[in-house]
Amino acid sequence: MPDAEDVRRIALSLPDTTEKTAWSMPTFRVAGKMFATLPEEETSIAVRCPKEERDEPALAEPGKFWIAGHEAQFAWVRVRLSALEDEGELRDILADSWRQAAPSRLLEAHSRLGLPPAD
């Protein structure tokens, strides 16, 4: 089961990522734009997820994903670390969130980041 140190290690391995404390919790930013946080005593993460897509994982796997009430109007979803299968799943979730926040120069330079290998 991935933990907060795995989140930190994986997030900081993504290009141009920094860690900054905000709202008394660790946040991770790409080129200054937040893409992940470690709320709830670091037992979950909040990641970017397009508002029109985030209901799907929350409904399909409510033990893993949920939408915090105070984030309902924003494009964020919460993920319980204890419900993740492995570090690979955590890496995929963080990389997807990173891609949503990264500027186009980084997306172009790292276009395959977090995507499955081509067949």
Structure description:
There is one protein chain. This protein has a six-stranded antiparallel sheet. The longest helix has 15 residues, at 87-101. Helix 1 packs across helix 3. The protein is globular, with a radius of gyration of 13 Å. Helix content is 31%, strand content 24%. By secondary structure, the chain is an alpha+beta fold. It has helices at 4-13, 55-60, 87-101, 104-109; strands at 17-22, 25-30, 33-37, 44-48, 65-66, 76-80.
What would you say about this model in short?
The protein is globular and about 35 Å long. It has helices spanning 4-13, 55-60, 87-101, 104-109, and strands at residues 17-22, 25-30, 33-37, 44-48, 65-66, 76-80.
List the helices and strands and how they pair.
Elements (H helix, E strand, L loop, with lengths): L3 H10 L3 E6 L2 E6 L2 E5 L6 E5 L6 H6 L4 E2 L9 E5 L6 H15 L2 H6 L10
Antiparallel strand pairs: 1-2, 2-3, 3-4, 4-6, 5-6
Helix pairs in contact: 1-3
Q: Which key phrases capture this entry?
A:
119 residues, alpha+beta, 6-stranded antiparallel β-sheet, 4 helices, 6 strands, 31% helix, 24% strand
